[in-house]
Amino acid sequence: MKLLEYKAKELFDKYGIRTPAGIVIDKLDKTNHALESREDSDLEGLSQKLENLDYPVVVKAQVQVGGRGKAGGVRFADTPEEARNICIQLLHSNLKGFIVKELLIVKKVSGIKEWYVSITLDRGNKVPMIIFSSHGGVDIEETAITDPDKIVKIGIDPFIGIEDHIVHYIIDKSDIGMAYFDEMNDLLKKLYRVFIESDCLLAEINPLIVTEDHQIIAADGKVDIDDSALFRQQDILAFRDKLQEDPLILDARKFRLLYIPINPEGDIAVMSNGSGMIMSCIDLITKKSMSVGAALDLGGGCTADRIYEGIRILLSNPRIKTLFISIFGGITRCDEVANGVSQAVKHLDSSKTIVIRIEGTNKEEGLKIIEGIQGNIISVDSIREGVKVLYDLQISNNSSVS
Ligand code: GDP
Ligand code: MN
């Protein structure tokens, strides 16, 4: 799970990593409306908050995507008035496909250099790895391609952690100068603790701004927490629940199901086990000019109960008229799937059609159960055949409407 910048900053603060002081602005639901009548009480609250900041500041859109700076989501303001105008422009705007619901406003750090540092998981060597570059900032991706020598990588033995020689190596290779040893030593050790103790897949700071008096300050933070470890990261779980996510995503998550909203206009839902199969189904359906509204990934070893819940969640979306289920049973057994579908057909909206294809373990038993289901259900033998049935249904639906 990727954290928003302000949450990453909170984590860094907790570990004593230096970050600029700031505030988070949210819940300005009336901002759009306030564009016309600037007297809105929420905005009065905003003005007051902005008056109290130390200028210049940086106003930063909180969206879970990189490259905000280049997309206009990171803006500088010298006065409260300027900051206020930027807030009004940015809040509720669409930044790279994400609606901006929160802003982080921090004191602008004035620096002489921008560095890059991250700790990530080196899956090949099965160790955490530090990546450092003295050429950080918004062009780091380009540097990685054009100037790979400017990027230093070093693995950390998890039984030992970060020792002085690691810090020496990074400083030496990147040529930033031994004067930064204490700062770098302190920062890397703290960031490593964040990485380990918060079960991170990535803990990144870009840019690390170097000030004139040789302090280094984390001016941006990107943290990705391993979803499998979230059960022991209560604080992060609480943060996740606070993000105003689609209620169907939250509902699905309770049953360890992954609900994926796709096209809000789409009237077909896809349910399958595994992202590859889901993508194939969506591709084939879309190729036939039909539109998928949502998909649901069951993951492995699905029981009848979870199948039932998955169907319930997908069909609870009123736009969805047809559900395509494609299951390859390995650990998942087709009879178990069919039982779940049978329960669903009995209890759920009968005006919707289910097209189902099952393959693999206990297929024959599964097919027998499906044959016995009384309701709007069509059994097919392949994804292609299923897509053809969806297409025919679509045509007959359209002609019955007109
Ligand atoms: P990103 O584009 O999503 O990675 O957003 P960042 O928070 O990294 O901001 C983009 C760029 O704006 C950074 O690489 C910096 O060059 C610049 N920037 C952001 N905050 C500050 C700051 O406090 N001081 C200065 N001098 N530059 C900043
Ligand atoms: Mn950045």
Give the topology:
Elements: H1 5-14, E1 22-25, H2 31-34, H3 41-51, E2 57-61, E3 74-77, H4 80-90, E4 94-95, E5 98-99, E6 103-107, E7 113-122, E8 127-133, H5 140-146, E9 151-155, H6 164-174, H7 181-197, E10 200-210, E11 216-218, E12 222-225, H8 234-242, H9 247-254, E13 258-261, E14 268-272, H10 275-287, E15 292-297, H11 304-315, E16 322-329, H12 334-347, E17 353-360, H13 363-371, E18 377-380, H14 383-401
Parallel strand pairs: 14-15, 14-16, 16-17, 17-18
Antiparallel strand pairs: 1-6, 2-3, 2-6, 4-5, 7-8, 7-10, 8-9, 10-11, 10-12, 13-15
Which overall shape is indicated by the principal axes computed on the Cα atoms? Answer: elongated
Indicate the radius of gyration in whole angstroms. 26 Å
Q: List cofactors, ions and other ligands.
A: guanosine-5'-diphosphate, manganese (II) ion
Say how many strands there are.
18
**SS class:** alpha+beta
- End-to-end distance, in Å? 46 Å
Q: Mean of residue pLDDT?
A: 91
Number of domains: 3
